Amino acid sequence: MAAPSALAFDPWDPAFLADPYPAYAELRARGRVHYFEPTDQWLVPHHADVSALLRERRLGRTYQHRFTHEDFGRTAPPPEHEPFHVLNDHGMLDLEPPDHTRIRRLVSKAFTPRTVEQLKPYVRRLAGELVAGLVEAGGGDLLTDVAEPLPVAVIAEMLGIPESDRGQLRPWSADICGMYELSPSPETAEKAVRASVEFSDYLLELIAARRKEPGEDLISGLIAAHDEGDRLTEQEMISTAVLLLNAGHEATVNATVNGWWALFRNPGQLSALRADHSLIPSAIEELMRYDTPLQLFERWVLDEIEIDGTTIPRGAEIAMLFGSANHDPEVFEAPAALDLTRKDNPHISFSAGIHYCIGAPLARIELAASMSALLDQAPTLRAATAPDRKPNFVIRGLEGLSVEVR
């Protein structure tokens, strides 16, 4: 078992952040599990292990359904962080059965495949309008002009958030998601707490308004959802709405800009896509694999497990490296190559098991809509300058992507 600190794995190094995939290859070659002292985590880099551990019930997104912080050998979060943790810990992404099962079942009653399918015309129209604006201007920032406003507007439309209130959604989300990085700073935590309070207060008012006058939106659906008398609590509704916004656009935003930057760096693949738009579905899957928007997903060890002869004790934390798993040559032929025609593509960018992304179908619709609009309306789209990468590891994206249309 190699110590990653002796390898190229350094999630705070700009060179690693620019291209972590060679370091992942080294991790995979050195073994199936590695203890990383700086974050007190066990790193798992292989696809087979990550896929299995995502379904492993001896691991959990939380441990508080079974243990106190003290029993689990962990320190409780600082009291001043409570607003963030109340918001985060009541969302189904960070819950385990039976709470997770109950909440996901109730949310699924409002977030149905039919609801998502009915959004297609709206998504396509909005994507077309955003791209038309980019083309009319001769270019711009693909991030702020198309990639961000599309999924934010879609999830806001679903939730029933008035257009006049939508400007604050992305800043709130960005501040909250800062807490998902490794070892967030006190300033990051302060921003996340403030955003958690403001967003929660806003949603409390919106939920109260929908109780008086229900609509066709998702908030109204969450209020109405019930199963044998069981309903979502107010906090669960707030946490669900925030989760749907955060998870519902962060991955889509980053998949869009990461994907187009990958296409610009692989002109042969981009030419093939421009020549054959029927490649869009497989292109989306391949771009999600090739430069994974969520690089790492964590689980607590609830009961001792063994990986390749290494015993990982209860109370430890496992970090599953999605980006590494998606480049595992045992699963993907020539994983370092971008291949938009890749047929066998079991990437895990949307996770797996009971926490598989409930919004994956909507994300695919949004990615297809923006890609189709860009291919149709901007066939000469190209990068104006090389982008700067965000100084994040877990949520992988760009600061912006300046493009030209000629």
What does this structure look like?
The protein has 17 helices and twelve strands. Strand 5 and strand 6 form a beta hairpin. With 406 residues, the protein is an alpha+beta fold. The strands form four sheets. A five-stranded mixed β-sheet has the order 1-2-10-7-3, with helices on both faces. A three-stranded antiparallel β-sheet has the order 4-12-11. A two-stranded antiparallel sheet has the order 5-6. The protein has helices at 14-18, 21-30, 47-53, 82-89, 99-110, 113-118, 120-136, 142-147, 149-159, 169-177, 186-212, 218-224, 234-264, 267-275, 280-290, 322-325, 360-377, and strands at residues 34-36, 41-44, 59-60, 139-141, 226-227, 230-231, 296-301, 305-307, 310-312, 317-321, 382-383, 402-404. The protein is globular and about 60 Å long.
Give the topology, please.
Layout: H1 14-18, H2 21-30, E1 34-36, E2 41-44, H3 47-53, E3 59-60, H4 82-89, H5 99-110, H6 113-118, H7 120-136, E4 139-141, H8 142-147, H9 149-159, H10 169-177, H11 186-212, H12 218-224, E5 226-227, E6 230-231, H13 234-264, H14 267-275, H15 280-290, E7 296-301, E8 305-307, E9 310-312, E10 317-321, H16 322-325, H17 360-377, E11 382-383, E12 402-404
Parallel strand pairs: 2-10
Antiparallel strand pairs: 1-2, 3-7, 4-12, 5-6, 7-10, 8-9, 11-12
Helix pairs in contact: 4-11, 4-13, 5-12, 7-9, 7-17, 9-13, 10-11, 10-13, 11-13, 13-15, 13-17
